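User: Can you predict the 3D structure for this chain?
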Amino acid sequence: MAERSWSFSNVFRNVFGGGEPISDETWDDLETALLSADFGPDITDSILDQLRADVERHRVTEVKELRRMLRELIEERLAAFDPTLKLSDRPAVILVVGVNGVGKTTTIGKFSNYLRSFDKRVLVGAADTFRAAAVEQLATWAERSGADIVRPQQQGQDPASVAFQAVERAKNENYDVAIIDTAGRLQTKGGLMDELTKVRRVIEKQSPIAEVLLVLDATTGQNGLAQAEAFIEHAGVTGLVLTKLDGSAKGGFVLAVQQKTGLPIKLVGQGEGIGDLTGFTPHVFAQQLVG
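Assistant: Here is the predicted structure, written as structure tokens:
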């Protein structure tokens, strides 16, 4: 599959626009660019410290060389995490979690389409039973992507029972992947994390869970990460999906979120189309981000 051309606003244009030598102003502009790209103050300081040391050690004087060094440094840090999706089980059961509003349901549709492009048979389970709209939305995306769907048999059905039925069907009918949607919040007194634990427990009676993917909205940056911390702490998250990266200058959040959570980014979304979700490649991302 062809790599996507990212459309980040070029926050580094002022830093690397010409062929002038590195100056104090260069470092000031680079710090501003890193912060505005949502790398966060800690990672910005760490990057600047490492770049200053490398520039001094290698006696680098040109801005264009500094740009190359920044790109390679970001790529190296991104590549410290393995973005490979674990899909060897049959079926590979994938739970998708995240707060409501991050694009979780549409992400499942796009993810299904991505998997279908590799000739995978995909079944989705509509276990976000607390929102009737979520079930209908997921059904629409499943149809568009060529995936099959297991719906609740009645409104408000126990999410764990829907997940059970989906995995059971995926096993019996030899699907390659079963993707289970989950609630982002509950309209009951029960705790959301307790509900997710129950879903996991019921699924694992039949099949191991290959991945628990947390969907984050890149436009919310560090705030979105704070909202999702409960999922990271309690839901057994194995990887991240970043949505809404299109046209965003906040590409630094990609590195920041990996380093803060210790979790790899496995999928990235740009745009609203069904084909606008792809696997994550550190080399390509660093090249598009820095130029």
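Confidence is low (pLDDT under 50) at residues 1-7. Residues 196 and 235 are 7 Å apart (CA to CA).
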